[in-house]
Amino acid sequence: MLQALVQNSLDSVATGKVKDRDEVAGFVQEVLKRAKLQHSLRLLGVAILGFFFLALSVVGIFLWTGNSLTELEERTARREAATRQREAELARAGVMRESELRLQIEALTTQLDQTRAATSTEARALTSALRHLRAELAQALEDSQHSFIAIAQRNQGAVVLLHHMYQAVSQETGRPIQIIGENADGSPIFGEDGEGIPAILTAQGTGFVVDPQGTILTIRHIVEPWQGDERFRRLGFSGKTLELTATFVDTDRALPVRVLQVSQDVDAASLRVEPFHGMRVIESIAPDLSKLRQGQRITIIGFPTTTEDGRAITSLTTGVISKVSLDKGIQFDAAVNPGSSGGPIFNEQGEVIGVVYGIGVGHEGGRLHGVYYGVPIQFALTLVAEVK
Questions:
Q1: Distance CA 238, CA 228 (A)
Q2: Whose CB among 147, 157, 200, 371 lies 3.0–4.6 Å from 280's, allowing a Cys bridge?
């Protein structure tokens, strides 16, 4: 068009005649149209570049936020690990110091006995040193107890009260058992077809949460109490669960749980509480059986009594490991009672080393004082690994 316009202009000059003005107007309109199109294209280009830079900024903010959260979680985990390590070191130092002080007290006591004939000044000096060592021993014992206070504070939120209601049923037919009468000696008369009172029983115990999915470890005879009932076995009865619930510490709400696995080798079982949102989990587990030693201090958290004012309240007892054997597992002297079965056994570092499962019984069926048993945690953990 430009060439045509120039040529027309040259021809007009040469001939002295002006060409049609419509060609000039059309050229001008076309130029304006193309200029407008180029301006729109520039605006579109600017918009695309602006959107691109905005997207890059949003992605950069998300990446920076994710990295910041990851670093914060890592710093928190490092601080918690350092705290646990310091507590464990203080506990070990307390035990070693306690042992040293006991040896020094014994030596000074012997020396004092041997120097009764010495001068009164020497006797007073020895007596003062003995008094000082006894004060240090009391302080060492108090320091060692602080580790168990910390264990309770960090872990009792993950310990649950289990309540099991079940119906007696016939092993042969699976039909419910009723109490249809009473014998002369007051013992109940059972039947399957009568219109008596349903034979419903309850069992109570302890469990503890071991993973974020809400998996609970406990013992088998809380989940299947009829298996260890000699009366049931003699009468040919089994059981059927009617209700199995878990109540967390300091709450009065019983949450339903379902059975995941029941061990046929040891007294252990795994359950799952649903829904499980933001609830506590046991802090640490030590599955190495070879590290268990006689005399090692332990603490146990459980529910030996019913709830208080409708709320689940734990109890804590301490003791030492008396024996470690392949057939009995862990034997200890920390006091437990019915209801504490299924509770976690902690070492001084706050790690779970076993699960409470039984009370010692003598040859004549009497209860043995200070003899209790636990399943090593490594055997109970197989139930969790199989589920996962």
A1: 10
A2: 157
Neighbours of 208 (CB within 10 A): 24
Listed residue (308, 367, 364) closest to 338, CA to CA? 367
What integer pLDDT is reported at residue 105 of this predicted model? 85
User: Which range is most confident: 32-36, 253-257, 364-368?
Assistant: 253-257
Rounded Cα gap, residues 299 and 316, in angstroms: 7
SS3 for 336? coil
Q: How deeply is 188 buried, as exposed, middle or buried, from its count of CB atoms within 10 A (0-12, 13-18, 19+)?
A: middle
Q: For residues 313 and 187, what is the distance between their CA atoms, to the nearest angstrom? A: 35
Residue 374 confidence (pLDDT): 93
DSSP characters for 75-138?
A: HHHHHHHHHHHHHHHHHHHHHHHHHHHHHHHHHHHHHHHHTTTS-HHHHHHHHHHHHHHHHHHH
What is the chain's mean pLDDT, rounded?
A: 81
Instruction: Examine the pLDDT at 388 and tell me if it is beyond 70.
Output: no
CA distance 130 to 113: 12
Distances (CA, A) of 45 to 31, 54, 57, 327: 21, 14, 19, 80
DSSP codes, 167-211: EEEETTT-PBPEEEEE-TTS-EEEESSS-SEE-EEEEEEEEEE-S
pLDDT value at 328 more than 90: no
Most confident of 115-119, 125-129, 255-259: 255-259
Contact 225, 238 (CB under 8 A): no
Q: Distance between CA atoms of 360 and 211, rounded to whole angstroms?
A: 31
Sheet with 178-182, side-by-side order of all strands: 188-191, 178-182, 197-198
* Residue 228: other Cβ atoms inside 10 A: 14
- Cβ pair 98, 141 in contact under 8 A: yes
In 3D space, the residue among 40, 303, 367 whose CA is nearest the CA of residue 161 turns out to be: 303
Confidence (pLDDT) at 158: 93
* Percent helix, percent strand, percent coil in the chain, to nearest 5: 45, 30, 25
Q: What is the pLDDT of residues 207-240, one digit of tens each?
A: 999 998 899 999 998 999 998 788 888 888 999 9
Is the sign of the CA dihedral 128, 129, 132, 134 positive or negative? negative
